[in-house]
Amino acid sequence: AFFANKVEHESRHCNSKGLQRQGSSSFDRVYTANQNCGHAYPTFLAVLWCAGLLCSQAPAAFAGLMYLFVRQKYFVGYLGERTQSTPGYLFGKRIILFLFLMSVAGILNYYLVYFFGSDLEIHIKTITSAISPLLLIP
């Protein structure tokens, strides 16, 4: 809602009707940042749900909240100079990678249980819980 509100505010500020692109530099930045965040959201939701369901809920929820804050930093950084958005973008990629690896670990554990009867769920949950605070390091 914050991103859409910024796009609407900038659109009104540029004296345009609707959400038409008028070539304004500030409107283009806001609109592009909003589109970038919207395009990344389905991927985020998919890996968040998979990590939470297949691996561990608490580290997945923590990483999800961190991702939302990082996306906010990316958006606000994109409103300034485009180079200010780079740290938020890279941090977001790292969180998505963490969630993806959690999903893969959960899938591998399922197949270990299915084929070999060996359950590593407790070890995987311990490792992900220990690694998740490291996401705070920029």
TrEMBL record:
Residues annotated as transmembrane: 46-70, 91-112
Name one cellular component (GO) term. endoplasmic reticulum membrane
* Domain of life assignment: Eukaryota
Chief location of this protein?
Answer: endoplasmic reticulum
One Pfam family, short name? MAPEG
Q: Name one GO molecular function term.
A: glutathione peroxidase activity
In Gene Ontology terms, what is a biological process of this protein? leukotriene biosynthetic process
Q: How does it sit in the membrane?
A: Multi-pass membrane protein
Location(s), subcellular:
Endoplasmic reticulum membrane; Nucleus membrane
Question: Which Gene3D superfamilies does this one have?
Answer: Membrane associated eicosanoid/glutathione metabolism-like domain (1.20.120.550)
Return the InterPro entries for the record.
5_LipOase_AP (IPR001446), MAPEG (IPR050997), MAPEG-like_dom_sf (IPR023352), Membr-assoc_MAPEG (IPR001129)
The record's keywords, sorted A to Z, are: Endoplasmic reticulum, Leukotriene biosynthesis, Membrane, Nucleus, Transmembrane, Transmembrane helix
Known role? Required for leukotriene biosynthesis by ALOX5 (5-lipoxygenase). Anchors ALOX5 to the membrane. Binds arachidonic acid, and could play an essential role in the transfer of arachidonic acid to ALOX5. Binds to MK-886, a compound that blocks the biosynthesis of leukotrienes.
PANTHER family, per the entry: ARACHIDONATE 5-LIPOXYGENASE-ACTIVATING PROTEIN (PTHR10250:SF2), MICROSOMAL GLUTATHIONE S-TRANSFERASE (PTHR10250)
- What does the record note on quaternary structure? Homotrimer. Interacts with LTC4S and ALOX5.
Q: What is this protein called?
A: Arachidonate 5-lipoxygenase-activating protein
- Give the species this sequence originates from: Eulacestoma nigropectus (wattled ploughbill)
